[in-house]
Amino acid sequence: MKKIIEVTDLRKEFKSYSSRQGLKGAFRDLLTRNYKVMRAVDDISFTIHEGEMVGYIGENGAGKSTSIKMLTGILNPTAGSVSVNGMNPHKEREKFVQTIGVVFGQRSQLWWDIAVQESFRLLKKVYKVSDQDYNEHMDHVIKTLDIGPLLDKPVRKLSLGQRMRCELAAALIHNPPLLFLDEPTIGLDVLVKLKIRQFLKEMNEKYKTTILLTTHDLTDIEALCERVVMLDEGKIIYDGLLNNLRKDIGESKQVQFHFEGDVAEKDLAFITSDLQVAWQKSEKDRTWSALVTDQEAQMSELIGRIVGAHKIVDLSIKEISTEEIIRNIYEKGNVAGGY
What we know:
Blueprint: E1 3-18, H1 22-31, E2 34-49, E3 53-58, H2 64-71, E4 79-84, H3 93-96, E5 100-104, H4 116-126, H5 131-145, H6 160-171, E6 178-182, H7 190-207, E7 210-214, H8 218-224, E8 227-232, E9 235-241, H9 242-250, E10 252-259, H10 265-271, E11 277-281, E12 287-293, H11 296-309, E13 312-319, H12 322-332
Parallel strand pairs: 3-7, 3-8, 5-6, 6-7
Antiparallel strand pairs: 1-2, 1-4, 8-9, 10-12, 10-13, 11-12
Helix pairs in contact: 9-12
């Protein structure tokens, strides 16, 4: 299978300068500066193959944006190697940008005051796309994203949802084999999100477009990606199938107890000390949640002991959401990856 992205021991370090106090300190800073080296990306390695749709996730400050900037050639790595579409993104930048599409939810590649179709024509010339290729490809894109009525409007008059659909179309004018998406559905309503997700699936199936998706909206990940790469403090803590997260961690259920009176965590932990149970305080008053393996005997024993020891006002059982699974991974700090 063809490798689209190949990253080996990738590292990016920044210098963080600090100022000395007082007038004397200011003069000393003119001659020498105090600094410490901050490692934003810490020797990460992964490979993405043609046609994969990969969720690239992590909390703020985990190193996602920095590594994406190295993958797209904006930043040069401190150490390690990056190969994207068989090229070094930073050293072969002019040739490289012809092979990728980028959509950043907070930034626009469309010209603000001119009609959308004029922006498309300018990008067509930038990417040197022939009239035939443009018409064949963009007719499908415009129809599928339902942006035909928007082509004559200036970008500044579009709603956020309309603009994001046009941004996505603009990124695909040259039909790139690789698409970087950074928060593509941020701030959009449910119907627009569904339209964009469906379109991305069609592009992936029709052209084998490889997609690297960075988002905080885990419903996007669940809808589009089979594989996830998770970063924390510059390191990869999980790289594997999304379904395996449920097998490793998600084969559990959350039993929520609403007690009649106040209950201490140490009391609950003592009652269930020989069971595989993790207790967590709920936002609701006098309510605790128990994370327990999805085994009938374990759950029955847990409920029996708690009900026997305390008065319960309400009890509910629910599946563990992907968001809760990922939060558990960050709290633990690492998970066995691979797929």
